[in-house]
Structure formats: structure tokens, C-alpha cells
Amino acid sequence: MKLPINFYKPLAIGAPLPLRELPIRLERMLHFFPPQVEKMRAKLPEIARQVDVVVGNLEDAIPADAKEAARAGFIEAATRTDFGQTGLWVRINALNSPWVLDDLLQVVGTVGHKLDVIMLPKVEGAWDIHFLDQMLAQLEARHQISRPILIHAILETAQGVNNVKEIATASPRMHGMSLGPADLAASRGMKTTRVGGGHPFYGVLADAGTEAGARTLFQQDLWHYTIARMVDACMAAGIRAFYGPFGDFQDDDACRAQFRNAFLQGCVGAWSLHPSQITIAKQVFSPDVAEVKFAKRILDAMPDGTGAVMIDGRMQDDATWKQAKVMVDLAKLVATKDPDLAAQYGV
Ligand code: GLV
Ligand code: MG
Questions:
Q1: Among 167, 117, 112, CA closest to 138
Q2: Is the dihedral of CA 60, 65, 69, 71 positive or negative?
């Protein structure tokens, strides 16, 4: 076991001190772009103004013969774009792939000083984080990068889910985790052919005799268990949880429902793979105006956060005060970026 006293020490001479607190940032949508496509690179400055985070994708969905073009395209776009307050992330290839070494050497070596987070796919256990942690410390030292690059793990293998707590606490570089439902479905042997979302056959049938005519099958959320485990592991470690991709771009309602379940369960954002999903994520991961107003009434009614009061017939105490604080703190963060919502929230 690593001694607690060493946890926050840099892993290489000349690497920056690890952060003790995550920077507070709005990360409602992690917007993916394929950097080998010139048209997408050209649109990047405009997209970056609309989203909270842009993620250059080097991994799955990039054809093997375009991996180098994607890496070069990402470096080119990252170099010339001013991202302002928008986060700049990259999803590198898996640690056992033939591309990851050059992904790290070239991306960190050229645009490492601009990079906020590296998204690491197919994380199986803490050992994967330790490897990347050490490697990043070496690269930060070599390239005089003064701000530590954070690590975001994709939770998308059965073994990763088994080890989710160890992954969350593996390093002070941990930013958070995303559920990767497509790879996870394959790794688990689930009998599906989808990227996230529900399945019409996964449900509970109403009891026989309770309804006239055909019995209703109530569809259930396939991802509930994994999201709950991920949120607990992340929040206990002080890092952030995200829902990942939703692959059916025709079905905005289902995407919204999946994102909303994740939001209610504790996630702070989701991936957007299509422009329509930017709008959905912005709506879902910005708290509801009526909820924020009610939360403010709780905070106002209990200035020191203790005791019990009744508001509109509902009991409020220290625990609802804390829930209200989560909501109002998030609303304040959203308000820094969205003047319309700031006015509606009244924060
Ligand atoms: C994302 O990478 C997924 O596999 O769902
Ligand atoms: Mg995947």
C-alpha cells in the first residue's frame, strides 16, 4: 500500500504538485469530435463556445487507418483554438493498443499545457490509473507543464465495475468517471446491440389479473445498478460521475430520459455525440428553475442549516437543507455561464 504521506507527492522530479481539490467547473456535456475530419476541426471554435467541454476522440469510432490523422488533427486544433472557459479533453487509445504511447508522447508533448483532462478507456483497475499517473508525471516534468493533467476513467468493463472504488481513489489526478454502456454491454455479455439507453424486453410484467386485457410490461433502466455504484464510488472519493454516450440520435426523448435518470442519481453531465444532444444535456444537467426556487426557500428558512421547518406542508431538516445546497450551488455555477438561467434562478 502506498503510504498516505506520499499520496500527494509528485511522481516525478519536476512534475507539478497534485491537486488537493478538483477545480470547480461546469461540465454538463462532454462533447466529442473526430479530429481527423477537417470540417469538424474548422467548426471547433464555434462548438467550443456552445459546450462546457470538448473531447478530441482518438479511440473507438476512429478507424485504424485514421488514428494518426486524428492525433495530428487534435494537436493542430488544440494549438490554434482559444477554448476560453471551455474544458479541453482528449480520449486516448486503450493502454494495450498500438497507438497509446504516441498519443501520450505527442499530445502531452505539444498541447499538454492546454489540456485539462485525459479520458482513459477500458480501465480495469487501479493499476491502469497508476501507470498513466506515473507516465503523465514524467511527461509533465519533461515539458515543464505547471498544471497537473487530470485523469477521467471510462467504466466500461465488468472488471472495472468490480474495481470501481479502487479506481476512484487510485490517484489525486482522478477527475471522475463516465459509464461506457456500449463496451460494458459487450464485456458483460449483455444481449443487446445498442449504445446506452433502455431495452424494450428489460422490464417487469404487471401481475396477472391486475389489468383487463394485455398485461403491461414496465420497462426498467438497464444502467441503474452501474450508475449507482459509480456515483457512490465517485462521490465518496470527491470526484465526479457522468453518464456516457447515447447512440440513437433519432430518439431525443429516450436520450433525455437516460440523461435525466443519471442527473437525478448524482451524475453531473453526459457525453454529447451529436449537436442535438448538446441542447438536451444543457437542459437536463442545469437544475430545474422551480426546484432551485424551492431549494432557496429551504436555505432561507434555515439560515444555519439546523432544526426543522415546514414549507408547503413538507418537512425540512438538516438533510433536506444539504440537498437544497447541492441544487443551489449547481444553479450558481450554471448562472456564471448562462445569463438567462441566472435571471430565472434569481441567484
Ligand atoms: C463508450 O466508450 C462506450 O463503450 O459506451
Ligand atoms: Mg467504449
A1: 112
A2: positive
CATH number of 4-206+213-285: 3.20.20.60
pLDDT in tens, 131-187: 999 999 999 999 999 999 999 999 999 999 999 999 999 999 999 999 999 999 999
Q: What is the pTM of this model?
A: 0.97
Q: How far apart are CA 140 and CA 162, in angstroms?
A: 31
Residue 309 Cα, ligand 2 centroid: separation in angstroms? Answer: 47
- Decide: 58 in ligand 1 pocket, CB within 6 A: no
Q: Is the CB of 119 under 6 A from ligand 1?
A: no
In the chain, the N- to C-terminal Cα span, in Å, equals 45
Q: Is the CB of 154 under 6 A from ligand 1?
A: yes
- Residues 2-53: pLDDT tens digits? 899 999 999 999 999 999 999 999 999 999 999 999 999 999 999 999 999 9
Strand residue runs (E) in 99-144: 117-120
Model pLDDT, residue 210? 78
Element (H, E) at 341: helix 339-345
- Within 10 A of 174 (CB to CB), how many other CB atoms are there? 24
Of the bound ligands, which one is closest to the alpha carbon of residue 271? 1
- Position in ligand 1 atom list of the atom nearest CA 179: 5
| Domain boundaries along the sequence of the chain | 4-206+213-285, 291-345
Q: What is the pLDDT of residue 213?
A: 79
